[in-house]
Specification:
Elements: H1 2-14, E1 23-24, E2 32-44, E3 47-64, E4 67-75, E5 81-90, E6 93-100, E7 110-116, E8 119-120, E9 141-147, E10 151-156, E11 163-166, E12 174-180, E13 186-195, E14 217-221, H2 237-241, E15 245-249, E16 255-257, E17 269-278, E18 282-291, E19 293-298, E20 301-307, E21 325-331, E22 334-343, E23 350-355, E24 361-362
Length: 369
């Protein structure tokens, strides 16, 4: 008997940590808080399911940061967005993976993104390493997301990961959520999670290094209502001096997520400021991308206005960021201030910029690549 007990103990000790920590939470449990317009519990294709349309369900109890979250999902091929949220610190800050039901097999058929201060970042974090061309059906599909401290693997009806992403959210642990947009009905079943250390199997995408001249740090203001800006072509010193400022760093592709300077969605415009010193009067230019609206000022004078908002150019225009615009800069001897006023609608609040000529220019340490 002692030998048998010792053998059982050895087996239990040898089990992976996650096997001892898997927790299933039926959607019928009172632990889920359902919000939104249309939600109920139903029997769907042989499974007890949570039906959502324009609604969410939140599970606030868990203290989750690394581990695995798993669930089944079903939906029709209608246009829609439905998925899971984890590390929910509050209803405005979490990480998210969702499936675009109408884009089966397309490169952007799904999406990982952080949500920071209520701002989803999918226009900033797009392409390889953030989505995969997954084929969907109208039957139940199993979704599994495996997370370590740096990234995550996404599995959809497969034992092999669809893709691996680099995590971009906050560092705090939190709960879970599932949701479906008002455009389509989604069904969820068999939700479970486990906490602990995990090993990722997916291939990490290696992005090209930011090129020399890329702006790597910005002085970023607190958000404000666009109506607070001076009217006309001048950006006065008062508009700058009345703001609070903090440093925000660029990520891959030189993209800076301006939502990291926000505390909520009350203000939808923000200032990103760059100081440029010059030994003498000279010229350069700045290539840039932005989301969603921008006004560019040099030394208080307006140089450029643009609109990169979702579907403004055609019905499939996404408004994703790339350095597609360029304006010349006539720099004075001494200090010059380049200011981008960036306004957000939805999908990502960001700026990316590089100076084409930097010889004879002076920047604070770490500002430029």
């Amino acid at each position: 008997m002692k030998k048998l007990f010792a053998c059982i103990l050895m087996v239990l000790v040898g089990l992976p940590v996650w096997a001892q920590q898997t927790t299933s939470v039926p959607f019928s449990s009172s632990e889920w808080e359902r919000t939104g317009n249309d939600h109920d519990l139903v029997l769907y294709k042989g499974q007890e399911a949570l039906r959502l349309q324009g609604a969410q369900a939140w599970l606030e109890g868990p203290d989750f940061k690394t581990g695995t979250v798993e669930f089944d999902i079903a939906f029709a091929a209608n246009r829609g967005f439905q998925g899971v949220r984890w590390q929910v610190a509050d209803r405005s800050n979490y990480e998210e993976f969702y499936l675009r039901s109408h884009l089966s097999g397309m490169p952007d058929g799904n999406q990982y993104t952080p949500v920071i201060a209520g701002n989803s970042g999918w226009q900033l974090y797009h392409g390889d390493g953030y989505s995969a061309p997954t084929e969907y059906s109208d039957e139940w599909m199993q979704v599994r997301i495996v997370l370590d401290g740096e990234g995550g693997d996404v599995y959809i009806n497969s034992d092999s990961p669809e893709f691996r992403f680099t995590r971009k959210g906050h560092d705090d642990a939190g709960g879970f959520g599932v949701y479906a947009s008002a455009l389509n009905t989604a069904y969820f079943a068999n939700f479970s999670y486990r906490t602990g250390e995990e090993t990722l199997r997916g291939t990490l995408v290696e992005y090209d290094e930011n090129v020399p001249g890329t702006v790597m740090t910005w002085q970023v203001s607190d958000p404000f209502d666009s109506a607070a800006l001076p009217q006309g072509d001048d950006l006065t010193g008062d508009a700058l001096g009345s703001r609070m400022w903090q440093k925000v760093w660029a990520e891959e592709k030189g993209i800076t997520n301006l939502a990291r300077a926000a505390v909520g969605k009350e203000g939808r415009s923000i200032l990103a400021r760059l100081s440029i010193g010059a030994d003498e009067g000279t010229s350069s230019s700045v290539r840039f991308g932005y989301s969603d609206l921008v006004s560019v000022y040099l030394n208080g004078r307006l140089l450029y206005k643009g609109d990169n908002t979702y579907v403004t150019r055609d019905y499939r225009y996404l408004g994703t960021i790339g350095q597609f615009d360029e304006v010349p800069l006539w720099l004075e001897e001494g200090n010059n201030e380049l200011v981008f006023v960036v306004s957000e609608g939805f999908g990502g609040w960001g700026i990316s910029a590089m100076l084409t000529e930097t010889e004879g220019l002076i920047f604070e340490e770490g500002v430029l690549k």
